[in-house]
Specification:
seven-stranded mixed β-sheet; 27% strand; 10 helices; 376 residues; N-acetylglucosamine-6-phosphate deacetylase activity; Metal_Hydrolase; Metal-dep_hydrolase_composite; Urease, subunit C, domain 1; globular; alpha/beta
Length: 376
């Protein structure tokens, strides 16, 4: 019989913080015992008591630990091991725009990692297909291989590895109808790498698009007479990604988005350079340079990030968010967006995915589906 494991801490539950004990067995939370405490008590009470939050969920990961999703081979395993050591307990491997045969090759390699979580790694929930179905005029750091989308082609890719999220530019011909078809089949769709208008964004949401890819970046901006795609998001979205590395988006713009979009959540958009020293790395077909905390193409364009989700949490709290609110934005809201009722929250029956932090929000431990991760 499997024995019950437990941790004593200040534990964030859906109802708020509880000072007590979390029990887990066979990879699932079995019980939480204790008494409610306020956020102020959690942050300021004396003692060595640790803080337990739901494990982080990142739906936009290109790489880490020197490896890139588009490499194929065992890259996904190394990427998962890097990010789990920064508290990400589940994630989506994210593609780059590339020739179709390269995307097929990458997904073929990702399929087995999606089917079976490797020990010591984050759970790979599936694939975020960020390219190639984007506007060639809003590539950002994506290589220039954008192409029109077809349902048959997406089905063929989905057969190689489970596609959970697809970024589309709604202004492209036929895309609005495709969004409705994809949503009817259970795919989540979000708007990104788009030169579309405010009206295009509103129509995409009406056709079933669920959110926006890295809000503000690689999309038409907000002007008071042409509100653009950013305006559509701020006026109408419930969900949107944002990259809180404080390079991609000004802190003031992050605050605007949090006031306007109730369930805005964080992603890293991390590259192979995450967790690595300064130098050159791959991002799909591109060579990018990590320096001064960022990742850029030779022309200076930001090309993904080096962000990890534990730093994203600290950045949000540094902007003035309560820990509970910041936790939802690095975990619960992404889980809700992806329809994951048993992740992103600590309650009986949920997966035992959690992070252990000290009072400075420095990572002390990570548990994924009941497995204690070696952070060394």
């Amino acid at each position: 019989m499997t024995s019950v494991q437990h941790i004593d801490a200040d534990i964030l539950t859906p109802q708020g913080f509880v000072r007590g004990r979390l029990d887990y067995v066979e990879g699932r939370v079995s019980a939480i015992h204790g008494s409610p405490v306020t956020e102020s008590q959690v942050r300021h009470d004396a003692g060595e008591r640790q803080i337990v939050l739901p494990g982080f969920i990142d739906v936009h990961v290109h790489g880490g630990g020197g490896r890139d999703t588009m490499e194929g081979g065992d890259a996904a395993g190394q990427i998962g091991r890097l990010h789990v050591r920064h508290g990400t307990t589940s994630m989506l491997a994210t593609t780059m725009t590339a020739p179709l045969d390269e995307i097929r090759s990458a997904l073929s390699a990702l399929g087995p990692f999606c089917a079976q979580r490797a020990p010591g790694s984050a759970r790979l929930l599936g694939v975020h297909l960020e390219g190639p179905y984007i506007n060639p005029g809003k590539l950002g750091a994506q290589p220039d291989f954008a192409k029109p989308a077809t349902l048959a082609e997406i089905h063929a890719l989905h057969a190689l590895a489970p596609i959970r999220l697809i970024t589309l530019a709604p202004e492209l011909p036929g895309t609005l109808d495709l969004i409705a078809e994809l949503r009817a089949e259970g795919f989540q769709v979000q708007i990104g790498h788009t030169a579309g208008t405010y009206e295009d964004g509103v129509q995409a949401l009406q056709h079933g698009a669920g959110g926006f890819t890295h809000l503000f970046n690689a999309m038409s901006g907000l002007h008071h007479r042409e509100p653009g795609m950013v305006g559509a998001a701020l006026a109408h979205a419930k969900y949107a990604e944002i990259i809180p590395d404080l390079l991609h988006v000004h802190p003031g713009a992050i605050r605007v988005a949090m006031r306007a979009i109730p369930c805005m959540f964080c992603v890293t958009d991390s590259t192979a350079a995450a967790g690595m020293p300064d130098g050159e790395y791959s991002l799909g077909r591109h060579r990018v340079t990590k320096c001064m905390g960022g990742v850029r193409l030779p022309d200076g364009t930001l090309a993904g990030s080096t962000l990890t989700m534990d730093q994203a949490l600290r950045n949000l709290v540094g902007l003035g968010l309560e820990i509970e609110d910041a936790s939802r934005r690095v975990s619960t809201f992404a889980a809700d967006y992806m329809g994951l009722e048993d992740r992103g929250r600590l309650q009986p029956g949920a997966w035992a995915d959690f992070v252990v932090l000290d009072r400075d929000l420095q990572l002390q431990g990570v548990v994924v589906e009941g497995e204690k991760i070696d952070l060394a």
